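Lab channel / #folding
Pinned by the channel admin:
"Please post every new chain as: sequence first, then the structure tokens as a reply. Keep commentary short and put observations after the output so the thread stays searchable."

First post following the new format, from NK:
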Amino acid sequence: MFGSGQIFLNLSFYAILPVALIFYYVYKRDKFPEPPRIVFITFLLGIGTTFPLGILIIATEGFAETLNLGIEGSNFFMSFIRAAFLEETMKFFVIIFYCLHLDVFDEPMDALVYGVAASLGFAVIENWEYVLGASKHGLQVAKDVALIRSFTAVPLHALAGVFMGFFLMDAIFQKHNRKFFLFLSLFFPVCLHGLYDLILFSKSISDFYIYILLIIFLVRAIFIFRKERKFQDFDNIKKVKVIPKTSDVIFMVFVTFVILFATNYFLDYVLYR
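Reply from TO:
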């Protein structure tokens, strides 16, 4: 398939490089860096989220078909539910059920670092699969795919991780509206990811808007990192971390699921039928 082991290694390098560069930038924003071993475990758990996705996709499609929700050919379903909801929920679980329970997770910046680590773990496998798959059409095609995804899909996953961490830091370190921010820590990344995929899947919307979307949220993400980095300079007060209840986490996932399916139903039955 690849011609030689060297070609395989070269393509793997192209797939992994953008992930490594983005994470290096994020990791260096933290003035009190997290233990590399813990960060790497988070990254590996992000990789691990790719394995159950096939089963979850089949189950979700089966559920939608049972309810006769008209998912066939639905860009919304493919973008927001099949892709964004399932993928972001798996990353969300890594942060909630592993990272938040770490003693080293003790300041708001940590939510950003671990959010990106989990997201890029998923991204590296997805990117690797796309690049190697494109190699069937030639080495140059695979390189082109790697280059395009370096500026689109990989940053998208990183940004989803940033905003997941951004809202999650308020959910666990602030005293007010914790449940609302917990909800946003999943719902917002799902919407960002879903909007990206919707533009990608739609034949009537120019791919140019993908770059506009990414630039807007990239600028916002940079300001978030700058703000949190400044807080690290003078915020010496030990913050109290409140880990969300498992029941609250599951409820937020359920609410997001219901909102997305209700929207899909509305679009399919009200607008298009």
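NK: Residues 5-265 form one domain.
TO: also worth noting, The chain is about 80% helix and 0% strand.
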